[in-house]
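User: Can you predict the 3D structure for this chain?
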Amino acid sequence: MNSELTKLQKLHLEQNEITHFKDRKVFCDLPSLRDLHLGDNYLKDINFDVACLKNLRFLDLERNKFEFVKTHDLMVLNQLEARPDRTTNLIVDFNLNPFTCDCKISSFRTWIHSTNVTVRNKESLMCFHDEVNPLPILEIDMSQCSAAIAAATIMFNTATDNHYGLGGGGGHENSGLAQHTATLIFLLIVLSMILLGLVIALVYVSRDKLKFMITPVFDNVAKKVQYTSIKDEDCPEVHV
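Assistant: Here is the predicted structure, written as structure tokens:
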């Protein structure tokens, strides 16, 4: 979008059946943009550049098709909020999206608790096991998603430690490094859990064979201990 609307502050694109943007920098020619309304569309992710919108204060994404939010997109929102030249807080609205109640939204929930971005009506955010019974995202049990939560937490903390770097030339590299590091840690955690699960499964499946192999060893040790005890008892006492 090549535009002369450099002073435009509000843009309403609701109900336009938008599924994605072919040009990621579609809004970057609007440097003064403050409010971007993209509600009631078919967006599944933030596939447009928001980092270039340094004055953005409100991003409306309600009533779209988000089933989860990519960790990278959440980091970008954090980066935008953390810009040193910002004068207002960033507000984001994700309400009335069909989020799924599984580990895919674990990073999103972790982000909601930790971010400085204002998440509008976050207590009203719902996810779905089915279309009939929505559950509050902030209240669902995610104990089975510990690996994903740990990876997301590390990623967000690493990005924080690097101060996001949007103002300098190395910012993108730092953000990318943080993302790759957190992804690697996540994969290691997942692989470790899989390996542990395989070991437990192998032991369980082979329990009879292991018992057959180990029992004679224990019996042999027990006999040796018994023989040693008998031998000690047979030794006469010597009085000096």
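Residues 184-226 form one domain. Confidence is low (pLDDT under 50) at residues 163-175.
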